[in-house]
Amino acid sequence: MARYALLPLLAVATAVLAQDTATPLASKHFPYPSGIPYQADPGTGVRGTQQGYNLCNSTTENQQSLCQTSFVNHIDDFCLWAPPKGPDTIGDTEGEEVAWCTKKGHGTRLIPPGALQGVQYLKTPDYIQIVGFIDQTQINLLANDSGGELDPHGADLRGNPLGGLMYSNAFPSNAGNNNSFEQVIEWHNFMGGGAFCIKVCDPAGAHAADYCQHVFDRIGCAYNDPNQAQNGTFEVCDSDDADYPGVYTANGTVMTYVQPAESLGAISTMPYQPKVAASSNCVTYQSSALYTDLVSVPPTVPTSTGASAKTTGTAKSGSTPGATGSRSGSAAAATPTGASSGAEALAISTISGLAGVLFAMAFLH
Q1: What CA–CA distance (Å, rounded) separates 353 from 351?
Q2: Is residue 325 in a domain?
Q3: Which UniProt keywords apply (predicted)?
């Protein structure tokens, strides 16, 4: 009789699990810290199970951490997504990336000292944007990987990484309160090509999903996060909002760019140039004054050599409404010509100075 009594409970548990798996990651809300689950994506699917965990603390804070709860607070306190093992590519590990952070206290790995080579932090009315240059080999990426895009959506709506959560204390509701973090629902992070950009949008903003678009995964930081980042410079600025990614004005008419399907080949031309929003009140810093927690972190030692057998540029596809679902790790050469130089990439120059980080890659969801 006890055996049969358990059946309804098992049915309920199975139903709850199935329901949770079917809920898009961007629709899940977990208050910090009391509401953080062990895993935000506990189910299974075509892409398997969540590889890491979201319940992170001092016991998980080490260079082998599989913490998949990330933070973007300020220029001295932010995280990036990168592989747990390497050297590898974003394209081959998008679902399993872990958080690499600049400050202790988040239960994550720390970015090794010297890896960050220039960072620009912009505070706008609707979002935080951080763009910078990085020695990506120090966070388990192959040196020549042009990378990809991470976001809380993905072709199956489970996010990349699967179950990856984002929090911040930078927005007006709790600005600067280190003991209070709110979940950021809309964000994106492009990694690769020796650079990165991450944008987190104010959860209270009416246009968070517009500013933190995730569908332009093949045109990189230049078009998703226009900037004036400079290699060797660490600065904080106030900034106006930029245009929504993909939205531009031509001959007085507001237009929306539609990214072509990956099956149509490389994106060799663009109908517009991204406009960098006006910034002000910029303050520069020395990296040694910002990243004091990184001093004692050892350099990253490759934990796997299997990536060398993988073909950079392998494409996998899938789609849901509003998502391209494309995957590719093909390289975009840092050339000033803007000509196509990869099976899936628009080659845009990676340079310092006023043009900022204008690299583009074959990005993924």
Answers
A1: 7
A2: no
A3: Signal
Tokens of 111: 């970015």
CA distances (Å), 71 to each of 99, 240, 321, 353, in order? Answer: 8, 22, 28, 27
Query: Which structure tokens are listed for 347?
Result: 């080659």
- Asked if residue 265 has pLDDT above 70, the reply is yes
Give the pLDDT confidence of 240-259 residue by residue, as tens digits.
999 999 999 999 999 999 99
Residue with tokens 């629902």: 185
Domain count of the chain?
Answer: 1
Which position has the token pair 């140039």? 273
Read out DSSP for 215-237? S-TTSHHHHHS-----TT-EEEE
Residue pair 67/79 in contact (Cβ under 8 Å)? The answer is: no
Q: Taking the CA atoms of 325, 357, 243 and 130 in sequence, report the sign of the dihedral they define.
A: positive
Confidence check: pLDDT of 304 > 50: yes
Q: How many C-beta atoms lie closer than 10 Å to residue 175's C-beta?
A: 12
Backbone φ and ψ of 18, nearest 5°: -65, -40
Question: Can you give the residue range of the structural domain that contains 296?
Answer: 25-309
- State the Cα–Cα distance between residues 245 and 215, nearest whole angstrom: 9
